[in-house]
From TrEMBL:
Pathway: tRNA modification; tRNA-queuosine biosynthesis. The keyword NADP applies. Catalyzes the NADPH-dependent reduction of 7-cyano-7-deazaguanine (preQ0) to 7-aminomethyl-7-deazaguanine (preQ1). The keyword Secreted does not apply. Pfam families: QueF. It catalyses: 7-aminomethyl-7-carbaguanine + 2 NADP(+) = 7-cyano-7-carbaguanine + 2 NADPH + 3 H(+). It comes from Paenibacillus pectinilyticus. GO terms for cellular component: cytoplasm. GO terms for biological process: tRNA queuosine(34) biosynthetic process. Its main location: cytoplasm. The gene is queF. This is NADPH-dependent 7-cyano-7-deazaguanine reductase.
Length: 166
């Protein structure tokens, strides 16, 4: 069993525990922070559920609301949860289509952590009588996680839930 993290281990973390948190409502990937994975030799999932995601329609400027599901298998780095929350808040005034938002989020997290595998699924509330649920994923090229990504993409929605206006 390993001991807790030292201050040296957490030197890259600046937002967690900071009482002067500033909320940025314009897209800003620099808000993301990472820390070292203490179990880099073990493959395991980390999942975030974010039921308060908002962005703006790039055409009408109307708000879009979603629950985001972000799952990844880390390698050396992991995303710090408060920085992820602030980063996701930064989409509040960002105008992009649902599909673009989930792909941007996935790309930024890949750039930050270089995970073994990652998937981002947005379940947006209906507007105009239709809901949109974009799903994207990625596995490290040349590894079993690349094949895993292909398999999960082809099978991710075999049993869709009943939509009841979310």
């Amino acid at each position: 069993m390993s001991a807790g993290r030292s201050n040296e281990d957490l030197k890259e973390i600046t937002l967690l525990g900071n009482q002067g948190t500033k909320y940025i409502f314009n897209y800003d990937p620099t808000l993301l922070e990472a820390f070292d994975n203490k179990h880099p030799d073990r493959a395991y999932f980390v999942k975030f559920n974010f039921p308060e995601f908002t962005s703006l329609c790039p055409v009408t400027g109307q708000p879009d609301f979603a629950t985001l599901y972000i799952s990844y298998i880390p390698t050396i780095k992991m995303v710090e949860s408060k920085s992820l929350k602030l980063y996701l808040f930064s989409f509040r005034n960002h105008g992009d289509f649902h599909e673009d938002c989930v792909n941007i989020i996935m790309n930024d997290l890949i750039d930050l952590m270089n995970p073994r595998y990652i998937e981002v699924w947005g379940k947006f509330t209906p507007r105009g009588g239709i809901s949109i649920d974009p799903y994207c994923n990625w596995g490290q090229p040349g590894t079993k996680y690349e094949a895993m990504a292909e398999h999960r993409l082809m099978n991710h929605d075999l049993y869709p839930e009943k939509i009841d206006n979310r």
